[in-house]
Design goal:
Keywords: Cytoplasm, Magnesium, Metal-binding, Nucleotidyltransferase, RNA-binding, Transferase. With about 700 residues, the chain is α+β, with helices and mostly antiparallel strands. It contains 16 helices and 29 strands. It folds into five domains: about 220 residues, 2-Layer Sandwich (Ribosomal Protein S5, domain 2); about 70 residues, Arc Repressor Mutant, subunit A (Orthogonal Bundle); about 220 residues, Ribosomal Protein S5, domain 2; about 60 residues, K Homology domain, type 1 (Ribosomal Protein S8, Chain: A, domain 1); about 80 residues, Beta Barrel (OB fold (Dihydrolipoamide Acetyltransferase, E2P)). The mean pLDDT is about 95.
């Protein structure tokens, strides 16, 4: 088919015939092998659907050999992890909830055309491979990306337009509803975002037509699987032992720990009651979950009652503070109910930007980095830390995307910036708390961000019909677990900077999407106005005392070698003498950084001195570095020397240079031009008296 002006070609049966479903999909010259495979038997001992999604970036796809000693691709890049998550989110709800067979959706990137992003091709290929496979799946679904330049939407933009435009939107849909939204935006309006979402939704319907045709021609019959649904009358039997009123009393409390203790007591009571029923005991954890879910959903949807007693649009208690951590460059803490994030900002020279390797040739480094950590103690559990998983990487990327539009340019603020969000306590939407905390710590660190940014998550509980639903503002953990949606929106008072939408049902109607975006806008304004701005209302006009101070000087590119010196001797001497860090770009931009502004000034002076072609009459300060019978050599910058002839040292005649000068003496000299050998010639005795006063 023709898709947004470019050819989309799908081949079935040519390769990977032993997979349950496989397509070789090409969009332009971007080619991806997408496969869907399932185990023949369910995995033992799990109470969840074991789905794995992989996006494999291969450097041969862009004609490169991987760096490093092994010359082999290593662990998945951050981009690959984020792509896995974007594919997983719309696919997972469409599999049967009681399926326990392992399913792997794998995407191997074989070739990359800069005009057609491989991530998009993998998303479409995954849906196609699963739909034509024999794996039970309630598809089809399709995905489209939308960019924007000069106010105009671009369907499935090129990599360059994606990287440089004002919108990066990915939308997945079934034929009837939107099922996933992921967006980064340059502070666009709510209505523009809604229009973009449904522009993508219209394109998805055309892709679904092609998938329907594929299924009708080459689709396999779905296999029968062992269901792990609850025994038919189990919930009815449970309600005889623990009444709905008792379950409501157990779960409808404000404190998370109290609720968990209440549910544990209910579970113990049921375990004792079913001690002789092995089948019921096997399914008991899932049954208690289902009973809680049924109770919470009924009370919210029918009675408009939330577990902690809040109104449907009410935000939990908020608090914020800055400067709570000593010696760091910027810190803040943001608390919303039982969700608490401490964010710490570090500023560094531009030489410490993060180098990025991947299939996108337009992105080779990141100057602003946001990272998120989720230790087990934040939810009252214990387990060893094994480094960030996919969830942590995803949450960090979302908060990074949320703040990216307000980060100042390198010309405005020449620093590398790292923000780290430490989760102290978690009970719902820590990624949105991270956005709020990061915004405050950036301002506390003196980063001149362009506007304040906040974020909030909205939830959803649906009934039997499309118009029977409740949208919840600021969902806590229990409402996320038992609800149908986690709709996260970040932005300023005026515009959206990021969206991430996860759902557990088969899609959202347009009224739900519009209401969630409106509610999120109202909520983030409330958070900024009543909480964040009370802690800190604008960026500080200076960086912290312990943050590096950075200065710049531009030099001619043909003078870079003079500053670097042979084997780096000159630049290392500048660093050694001043204590400042000195870095030079290939365009002649010299960056100098240290905690001492005087050290910066001295390093800049040395650089300027090295690259200056001195003329007769210029005054310099230097150090005597060598004494000869005929005169003294004065170094006025690392690697830059001139000679003072013995006759130019003092007004009176001297027999020996040592009578007046000693190695290491600091002297002021005046340039006499170049001597017959082309060497700089100086005089001490001819320096004007006014210069000596300086």
């Amino acid at each position: 088919m023709d898709l947004a002006g470019k050819p989309l070609k799908v081949e079935v049966g040519k390769v990977a015939a032993q997979a349950n479903g496989a397509v070789l999909i090409s969009y332009g010259d971007t080619t991806v092998l997408s496969t869907a495979t399932a185990s023949k038997e369910p995995r033992e001992g799990v109470d969840f659907f074991p789905l794995s999604v992989e996006f494999e970036e291969k450097y041969y796809a862009i004609g490169k050999i991987p760096g490093g000693f092994n010359k082999r691709e290593g662990k998945a890049s951050e981009n690959a992890v984020l792509t896995d998550r974007v594919i997983d989110r719309p696919m997972r709800p469409l599999f049967p909830k009681d399926l326990r067979n392992d399913v792997t959706l794998d995407n191997l990137v074989l070739s990359v055309d800069p005009e057609c992003r491989p991530e998009l091709v993998a998303m479409i290929g995954t849906a196609m491979a699963t739909c034509i496979s024999d794996i039970p799946f309630d598809g089809p679904c399709a995905m489209t990306q939308v960019g924007m330049k000069d106010g105009r939407f671009i369907i499935n933009p090129s990599q360059k337009d994606w990287d440089t435009g004002d919108l990066q939107l990915t939308v997945a849909s079934t034929r009837e509803k939107v099922i996933m939204i992921e967006a980064g935006a340059n502070l666009i309006s709510d209505q523009t975002m809604i229009d973009a979402i449904y522009t993508a939704d219209d394109v998805n319907k055309k892709i679904i037509d092609l998938i329907d045709q594929m299924v009708s021609e080459v689709g396999k019959e779905k296999f029968e699987y062992q269901s792990f649904a609850l025994p038919e009358h189990m919930l009815e039997d449970i309600e005889k032992i623990v009444t709905p009123d008792e379950m409501e009393e157990a779960v409808f409390v404000n404190d998370k720990q109290t609720r968990e203790a209440n549910v544990a007591a209910v579970t113990d009571k049921l375990t004792e009651a079913f001690a002789d029923n092995e089948e019921y005991l096997t399914h008991l954890p899932d049954a208690v979950y289902q009973y809680q879910k049924k109770t919470v959903r009924k009370m919210i949807l029918k009675d408009h009652k939330r577990p902690d007693g809040r109104a449907i649009d009410q935000i939990r208690p908020l608090s914020a503070e800055v400067d709570l951590i000593p010696r760091v460059h910027g810190s803040s803490m943001f608390t919303r109910g039982q969700t608490q994030i401490c964010d710490i900002v570090t500023l560094a020279p531009l030489s410490e930007v993060q180098r990025v390797e991947g299939l996108d040739p337009n992105i080779t480094e990141k100057r602003y980095i946001h990272q998120y950590n989720f230790p087990s103690y934040s939810v009252g559990e214990t387990k060893p830390s094994r480094g960030p998983g996919r969830r942590e990487i995803g949450h960090g990327a979302l908060a990074e995307r949320a703040l990216k539009p307000v980060i100042p340019s390198v010309e405005e603020f020449p620093y590398a910036i790292r923000a780290v969000s430490e989760t102290f306590e978690s009970n719902g939407s820590t990624s949105m708390a991270s956005t709020c905390a990061s915004c405050m710590s950036l301002m506390a660190a003196g980063v001149p961000i362009k506007d304040m940014v906040a974020g909030i998550s909205c939830g959803l509980v649906t009934g039997e019909t499309d118009d029977d639903y409740i949208v919840l503002t600021d969902i806590q953990g229990i409402e996320d677990f038992f609800g149908d949606m986690d709709f996260k929106v970040t932005g300023t008072h005026d515009g959206i900077s990021a969206i991430q939408m996860d759902i557990k049902i088969h899609g959202l109607t347009r009224p739900i999407v519009e209401e969630a975006i409106r509610r999120a806008h109202e909520a983030r304004n409330f958070i900024m106005d009543t909480c964040m701005s009370k802690a800190i209302s604008k960026p500080r006009d200076h960086v912290a005392a312990l943050a590096p101070k950075i200065s710049f000087v531009q030099i001619p590119t043909d003078k870079i070698g003079d500053v670097v010196g042979q084997r780096g001797k000159t630049i290392n001497e500048i660093i050694s003498r001043t204590g400042a860090q000195v870095d030079i770009d290939e365009d002649g931009r010299v960056s100098v950084s240290s905690l001492d502004e005087n050290a910066n000034a001295e390093a800049i002076r040395m650089v300027k001195t090295i690259v200056t072609d001195f003329e007769k009459g210029q005054i310099l300060k230097g150090t005597v570095v060598s004494i000869k019978p005929f005169g003294a050599f004065v170094e006025f910058a690392p690697g830059k020397e001139g000679m003072v002839h013995i006759s130019k040292i003092a007004n009176e005649r001297i027999a020996h240079v040592e009578d007046v000068l000693t190695l290491g003496d600091k002297v002021t000299v005046i340039c006499l031009g170049k001597d017959k050998t082309g060497r700089m010639s100086f005089s001490i005795k001819d320096v004007p008296k006014e210069a000596l006063k300086d």
